[in-house]
Amino acid sequence: MTASSAFNTNVKQYLSSTKVKGGDIPAGLQELLLAVADTCSTLSHEVAQGALIGLLGSAGTGNVQGEVQQKLDVIANDLLIDGVQGCKSLAGLASEEMELPLPVQGTGDYLLLFDPLDGSSNIDVNVSIGTIFSVLKKQDPKAPLQTTDFLLSGRHQVAAGYVVYGPQTTMALTLGDGVVMFTLNKLTGEFVLIKHAVEISHSTKEFAINMSNMRHWAEPVRRYVDECLAGVSGERDKDFNMRWIASMVADVHRVLSRGGVFMYPWDQREPHKPGKLRLMYEANPMSFLVEQAGGVSTNGDQLIMDMVPTELHERVSVMLGSKEEVERLQHYHTQP
Ligand code: AHG
Ligand code: MN
Ligand code: MN
Question: How many distinct structural domains can be found in the chain?
């Protein structure tokens, strides 16, 4: 089967022809997003080679978060740095895999944050993984780059997205005026527009959480999941289905595609940590996409997008997806 001619807009054409809230996308932002897309196209090709190019297994190093780095975590990080640091519009970048931000030679004022490889535990078992990215604007373009330049709430994002390397390589993107999706044509290396105005259904019968942590959860989350598990014979009056891929990027892609709720809540294993996922390059970009698709994203007490970060690698509790379910979770968090 050949590619359908209905799909004839590539990401470059999309960026240059699309109006966001009535205006053109700034040329510098187009340049940066294209560089990210091109790098992810290369990374998709590498991911698909796996063992053939010695890509699997541990790198034998750790990152600033105390996590073991896989070879692909390091390769993806290096590829993204190489791919974007020539962008004139970029002032600096920050990554899950680097303790400190990296200033970039560009004269522009965009800041890029990324999780170069999300779902590291799935690399060696050939399950979907991805890249997550967020773009901010430096508030003071002239001052030398500092970590504090990145510490802006998710509401300051000018663009965000992810690329999921699954059976297809698909990119979801928002510039604050809805969500679009592209699929990589692996023959040409181009991302091709496949969906406009992505909408998350307000109701759902599907939830995603790592159930093995159930005994550690706080009461509101335990109550919510207990009620889902009780199905038609319980409070909710309907049966639920559960999925857990253990790659946020793939779980959120499912939520954007067919609705659902994704949770990685605070738990008592490490009570001093607000959660496992990172605010700046996991929760914020995903929350921007989810809100733009009509869903809700919260830590239980506050919308994720409203949180003002105090650290680059800050962690957060995350509950996102279909509006009715996430609002129910928010409500349970207000109960004594
Ligand atoms: P990363 O690979 O970037 O460290 O992120 C992994 C995250 C997230 O993608 C996923 O939802 C979660 O870790 C899975 O955690 P568990 O193994 O605890 O289920
Ligand atoms: Mn991640
Ligand atoms: Mn990662």
Answer: 2
pLDDT at 5 over 70: no
Task: From 163, 195, 227, give the residue that closes a domain.
Answer: 195
Cα dist. 204→21, 194, 207, 247, 295 in Å? 30, 23, 8, 20, 11
* CA neighbor of 134 nearest in space, from 77, 180, 94, 98: 94
Whether residues 45 and 176 fall in one domain = yes
At 183 the three-state DSSP class reads strand
Give, for ligand 1, the residue of 248, 267, 273 to mutate: max count of ligand atoms closer than 8 Å to Cβ.
248
Kindly give the distance from the C-alpha atom of residue 55 to the centroid of ligand 1, in angstroms, as a whole number.
19
Write out the residue range of the structural domain in which residue 179 sits: 3-195
Query: Which tokens in the block code for residue 266?
Result: 């605070």
Atom 16, ligand 1: residue with shortest CA distance? 246
pTM above 0.70, yes or no: yes
pLDDT classification of 1: cutoffs 50, 70, 90: very low
Q: Whose CA is nearest to atom 6 of ligand 1?
A: 119
Within a domain: 201: no
List all residues 6 or more positions away from 260 whose beta carbon is below 8 Å from its beta carbon: 204, 206, 207, 208, 243, 254, 321, 322
State pLDDT tens for residues 178-231.
Answer: 999 999 999 999 999 999 999 999 999 999 999 999 999 999 999 999 999 999
Q: Over the stretch 67-119, which tens digit does the pLDDT of each residue have?
A: 889 999 999 999 999 999 999 999 999 999 999 999 998 788 999 999 999 99
Do 169 and 214 lie in one domain? The reply is: no
